[in-house]
């Protein structure tokens, strides 16, 4: 998801024989996209994915570098959840404030 997840995702996709599909912030992907809004600690944001990038019944692995509120990861799950057969998430680090 977004830029820092791109460091790991292509290598993992290659290793498991999967395709790499970027999920980006608004306006960064060319062509037609689908989008999902989500809440942050300080407001709202949006994730976009190329329309048709994932086909019905495919499997997906979402990789993100960090989870603070879970908003970005939840938006990724909602974007992919209607189409994919199974969905797994991998997070490199979790941040919690006490």
Automatic annotation (TrEMBL):
Signal peptide: none annotated. The keyword Transferase applies. SUPFAM superfamilies: PRTase-like. It catalyses: AMP + diphosphate = 5-phospho-alpha-D-ribose 1-diphosphate + adenine. GO terms for cellular component: cytosol. Its EC number is 2.4.2.7. This is adenine phosphoribosyltransferase. It is found in: Cytoplasm. It comes from Sesamum radiatum (Black benniseed). Gene3D superfamilies: 3.40.50.2020. GO terms for molecular function: adenine phosphoribosyltransferase activity. The lineage of its organism: Eukaryota, Viridiplantae, Streptophyta, Embryophyta, Tracheophyta.
């Amino acid at each position: 998801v977004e830029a820092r997840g791109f460091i790991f995702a292509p290598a993992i996709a290659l290793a498991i024989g999967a395709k790499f599909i970027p999920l980006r912030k608004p306006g960064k992907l060319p062509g037609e996209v689908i989008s999902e809004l989500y809440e942050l600690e300080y407001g709202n944001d949006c994730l976009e994915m190329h329309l048709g990038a994932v086909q019905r019944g495919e499997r997906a692995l979402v990789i993100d570098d960090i989870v603070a509120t879970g908003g970005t990861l939840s938006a990724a799950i909602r974007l992919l959840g209607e189409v994919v057969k199974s969905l797994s998430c991998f997070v490199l680090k979790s941040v919690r404030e006490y």
